[in-house]
Specification:
By secondary structure, this protein is α+β, with helices and mostly antiparallel strands. It folds into 2 domains: about 5-105, no CATH class; about 110-330, no CATH class. The protein is built from 11 helices and 16 strands.
Amino acid sequence: MEISLCSDCFQDPGLRMDAERVGIEADGACPVCGSATGRKLDQQLIASVARSFFVWGTMSRSDYGAAPIVQFNEHQKTSIDAPPWLEPDLRRIEEATGFGFFLYGPRLWMVGGVEPLEALQDPAQREPVIRRIVAEYPAGTLAAGEVFYRIRKGPARPDDAAQYDSPPAAGGGRLDTPDNPVMYGSQDLQVCIRECRVTAEDELYVASLAATRDLKLLDLTHLLYEEHVTEFDSVDMAVHMLFLAGPHSYEITRLIAQGARAAGYDGVIYPSYFSLLRTGGMPFETAYGISLRRFPQAAGYERAKIIPNLGLFGRPVREGTVAPRGINRIVLDRVEYGIRFGPVGFDREPWRPEDFSEEPSEA
């Protein structure tokens, strides 16, 4: 391993901690700063730190999609102005690697410029796209006896299975409407807890539920293979962006759920809004400006980023299509976050909405 820098070379606190996370322990002094204790970085590890801090760390969300504000490569010279505490670090990376850092102009599909997605936002154009989604996505099965979880915060009667059925007042979630109640659940208990926005004060209960017969579900987590289609025309990309978006997307996702029910499905398998927080995946990754979802060899990598949730139509407990295996109280004894850092002081890209100030409050 040829050492180029170490974590002690950096003075920006976040960049230094990112370098400590990525670097390796190795004997000897750093050739740049002379530290014997800093975690060592070769060219490949420096690129990993730079990607995490400058690219992932400047990822900016739009209504649909996201893109980094800063990018780097070995072909351009640095053209960004960094804060004074970061400037020396930026120059050290540049001198050690030849990387140049610049403001990134994303391809428009990355920030929602996807024709099927735009059509879904237009009531006059959305119906044909919804029909395509219901027709082109495959059926999945929740097999009889297969267990999933549903969490409630402070139910009136925690030991009553009916308390874990679809909410009596339907119409407030991602898929449900007053005429199409939906039971939400997941086979990933950690995601269940996050979806419920729990706090330390909440009394939490989980029902372990199992299907009493095979349930036919529209699988919206599937990576749809589309020949001779770019991201701009991709139904796969439209659906992917829909389920990583906040409450402004609910009008559309509810219509997709209604279409699935009308087609005879018992429910849907859909990507959790918190998938990327659970898996640590980077949103909307590209290679040479092309989405990794377009590469068959990257399908497994992209699938691993997504956590499937379940949305079962009707009132499955009352109707007997699912039955409880047991109900338990949940006691949270520790919460831990995986953290990356990013820089500050960069102007917003023109595609970023000026009124976007915080994460959506619902999923």
